[in-house]
Amino acid sequence: MDVRLVVVGASGVSAGDVVAVARGDARVEISAEALGALGAARSVVDALAAGPEPVYGVSTGFGALATRHIGQDLRARLQRNIVRSHAAGMGPRVEREVVRALMFLRLKTLCSGRTGVRPVVARLIADVLNAGITPLVYEYGSLGCSGDLAPLSHCALTLVGEGEAEGPDGVVAPAGELLAAHGIAPVELREKEGLALLNGTDGMLGMLVLGLDDLEGLYKAADVAAALSLEALLGTERVLAPELQAVRPHPGQAASAANMLAVLRGSGLTGHHQDDAPRVQDAYSVRCAPQVAGAGRDTMAHARLVAERELAAAIDNPVVLADGRVESNGNFHGAPVAYVLDFLAIAAADLGSIAERRTDRLLDKNRSHGLPSFLADDPGVDSGLMLAQYTQAALVSEMKRLAVPASADSIPSSAMQEDHVSMGWSAARKLRAAVDDLTRILAVELYAATRAIELRQGLAPAPASRAVIEALRAAGVRGAGPDRFLAPDLAAAEAFVRGGHLVAAVEAVTGPLV
């Protein structure tokens, strides 16, 4: 299998590059331009290190200890000590893809020529990524200000040959041994280099990029599931007409409505809302699906803009400017990233909430327009999907808790020098949990909607809906029938959504969704 090559230049990287390195194990190469920028910035730092004036991170302590001048004989120890002391994470291990993303993003900033590290440090990060060595990083330790300090420190610890890391075979071993086994020499850090390896928003940014990659597929999946539920409830697709979306011109809403219309094209189930029990309008959870999913899409567009700006940024303190000055700054504060991470969790929670309401409507015989209670084979003897909705409701409830903003909180640190922090790492961790929950919620709606469509005997579903049902059954998710052990079906439905197979089944009929 060909492995993508990602070249890191001095002007930043793309979101696709981050995903390729984090999830696809793409190989990393540093451009000649970036190596030149690294060398030029390092010459500035070397000149300052030789001079008498105190410079933060070069010849002083850190944080609240920045008032102490550090002599040249102690500076290597100073840089090594900041890595050791700041590698103070606790809790469960962070996922491999997140660690690879944050390492790659730190490399991106080093290659900007704004940090003043030597080219050898940047090359070492690239070598570690290419060798498939992943430092052990832990859940707790970042306040999202002065960068993701503890997570990045654990990565830097591997670069100096200390701590533990995971090899490409998944076996955890001492980092020094793993480096030696791959012919990689650890680095002895010099002035500013320890600080430069720690002082970035790379963890929260990496999780933002990965979260957007996940949500891109999940919002399409949500449009498909909503369309299937509308079809199963004999709803009307007239509310999805482009001219109605144009009256309220939010681009995300128009995109979601277009996706739903594409799925429903050719359906024999829609438009029956005026038959046996006439309805003037469908319920909000059906009729307003594009408005809710569309608002989430527009939220993603804003978050993507923030991510693109961060991907073009060089986050460090102090930074080497183009005119050769080295200046302290506050660009390490994670507020811009933290806000959108929280915003995405809020939007995802609402998407999960409306999906659960549609599922509940499918299961309630008083609101499902002719479907059996809980879509059971023999209601009373069989409970059908009653408990599937319980599971879905529990997931929605958790998503609502995860939607409480982390960025609204701040706990001062470093003897009140760092007296306002972003909590962006916590916002990112919440979003990852929310994405997992949303995947499961949509899987339950899909399971219920496809079963309900099958129970509408005598009415033909849309070709795209038929393709979904066939693909879902081929994936091991069983259809209507007497009660059985339900958890395996739900797990298979989750895997179907998570793997992108739901959207793929639809697009094989409709062409690309938007």
Structural write-up:
The chain is mostly helical and 514 residues long. It has 2 domains: 5-200, Orthogonal Bundle (Fumarase C, Chain B, domain 1), CATH 1.10.275.10; 213-309 and 350-411 and 424-510, Fumarase/aspartase (Central domain) (Fumarase C, Chain A, domain 2). It is 55% helix and 5% strand. It is built from 19 helices and 9 strands. Helix 9 runs parallel beside helix 16 (424-455), helix 11 (251-264) crosses helix 13 (289-311) and helix 13 (289-311) packs antiparallel against helix 14. The chain is elongated and about 90 Å long.
Enumerate the strands of the largest sheet in spatial order, edge to edge or round the barrel: 4-6-7
Detail the poorly predicted runs.
none
CATH fold-level assignment of the largest domain = Fumarase C, Chain A, domain 2
Fraction of residues in H or I helices:
40-55%
The rounded Rg comes to 26 Å
End-to-end Cα distance, whole Å, is 29 Å
- In total, the number of domains comes to 2
Number of strands: 9
Structural class: mainly alpha
Short description:
The protein has helices at residues 15-24, 32-50, 75-86, 96-110, 119-130, 149-159, 175-181, 193-198, 202-232, 242-247, 251-264, 284-287, 289-311, 335-363, 386-402, 424-455, 463-474, 487-498, 501-510, and strands at 5-8, 27-30, 90-93, 134-135, 138-140, 164-166, 172-174, 319-320, 326-327. With 514 residues, the chain is mostly helical.
